[in-house]
Amino acid sequence: MRFYEYEAREIVKRAGIPVTDFGFATSADEARAIAERIGGPTVIKSQVLTGGRMKAGGVQFADTPDEAARHAEAILALEIGGHMPRGVLVDPKAEVKQEYYAGVVWDGTRKRPLILFSDMGGIDIEQVAEDHPDHVGRGHFSNLLPFSDFQAKQVIAAAGVTGSALTRLTPIVARLARLFQQRDMTLAEINPLAQLEDGSFVALDAHMEMENEGMPRQQALLADLGIGADEGTREGYEPSRFEVAVKDIDAADHRGVIQGKDTGFHGNLGLVIGAGGGSLTLTDAVRSHGGRPANYSEIGGNPSVAKACGLAKQVLQKDGVEKIAVMMSIVSNTRVDIVARGVIKACLELGKDPAETIAIFRIPGAWEEEGFKILDRYGVEYCDRSVSMHEAAGRAVAKIQGAAA
Amino acid sequence: MSVLINADTTFIVQGITGREAVNLTRECLDYGSKIVGGVTPGRKGREVHGVPVFDTVQQIVEHNGGRVPDGSVVTVPPAFTKDAVLEAIDAGIGLIVIVTERIPRGDVAQMVEAADARGARIIGPNCLGLVAPGIAKMGGIGGPAKNTEQAYQPGSVGVMSRSGGMTTEISSTLTVAGLGVSTAISIGGDAIIGSTYAELMPLFEADEQTEAIVIYTEPGGRMEAQLAEWVADNDSRLPIVAFMAGRFMDDEEMKGMSFGHAGTIVEGAEDTATEKIARLEAAGIPVVERIDAIPDAVREKLGARA
Q: What do you get for the CA distance between the two ends of chain A, in Å?
């Protein structure tokens, strides 16, 4: 779950970290009003869930409220990286003395959160780490014991910071670490964390990502930020018609799980495949034979006939799909006969011949004899575990290429 | 011999009255595993396939004359998993298999830290458990006993996999090829898991039955880099063969998307399939492109050592 900058700054502010007197606007008039309240030069920033705002012209400086309104109007109509902005953030223009970086991420190998801090803020931290490793402090901390300020202090000091900056930065970084823990974040970043000419420290930009699995217990915060359940997990792209349809079919019935994606897939071979690792393996296998998948999918947890049928139908109804390959790694929970029934039903309901439409059926495992009997009846080519996943994918590709030739 | 479990291993099932748990209890009992109790709060006095159900782990220990079970299979909803695991750790249980998926990373990190402090080991979350072919299994791995028997025959290869289903597919391939499996562990598909490849290697290293290792891996995370480092730092007697799924995720159009398991989210340049393959191969671990190429790759490696 990704947050817009204006939301991320609000989260930071609630954690007790100083921020500027910013405002969020969805119209030029609102932007003017915020600029009037601020009463000085402002920065107008596009609120999109993508990088490269500055380069795209999504960040503009204004000296007067009228200028702020004009910039807001232009930015609100500006698409950046395929995204239209949610609104604009109107920020007082800050007189910055020094920029710092503070971030917290998970280290999956150490299985602990990791703080990163640098006195070279405002730029990409990975670049700083590469070019100036002595300017980056790092420190893991326990996720079980209460976080103590000295842990933040150590990391800041390791980046070479001392004096009053060290003592003033310590509570800010400590609050960021606690916020990361308490809010189920996978990324909590303030960049730049700025010291202004007047000596104060403020978060000038913030980037927050919450783990989808943590969202159920963060409902109060999400509601406070005005984020409804209808926004989902805000994937980095707009879900396709196919993806929405498969999700709806999955939600309509609690038995088993189906998933489907077609963003980035443009082929003619529909894939009705599973389970998690099996789907990854089979998608690779189809491509390694020169096949062009029309989609990705996952079947798991023993779905109902209706669910398997629903997925197959959605795949078959995609533009350009000529045949489907129904394949899984050996199943022990999902029943072969149920998936077989589902995909045959999908073909029949769409007025297609299962023998022609299903390029290959390779699902070995639980209830396979029953499944194979059904497939026999409709003349569908199937195979058991003696045919590898790779080989089965090859047969499907050969069939569709033969059909196209 | 085998790794982590043997014929005498006793374990419990936390959340035993759930639909999935009832099935896996049946499957484990049929396979010969020793399940000494189950926990579902408020259901004390019931039985699941003859296994007595209790309200607390402590009650099972008392019921068994103070003997602490060796392990626990935890299959409770994500919001309650951490509490169940801490209860098992507190009772002194040494091996905890977490089946549950969709547990927030913060909770997983806390469970792992608590387990480390008490010398307990966690397998999972989001896994199917482990099986020592012909001896015992812990978790739903392989499914019903007869299916497990078909796919997993005793042999010389240790299997570790981030995918539960692919653990069975790979083991079946090894079984058909006549190599067989010493112990197969579904290690879990999440970004943070209790036991990584490198953390389990010393156990296989100490197991006389194991002569080679096969791993199934995916994009996302640094577990493979950690294994490559382990291989470089330890003069292991065990050759390793890897299979990498999800190569298609390296395509420009797939950037930022996650497929298959929660852990496949690519968060850095080192997490991609291409980078991992290069890293593993540099450590002398061949990465095969197809599952059916695994047995020959294992034989070749074993031949080179002989």
A: 45
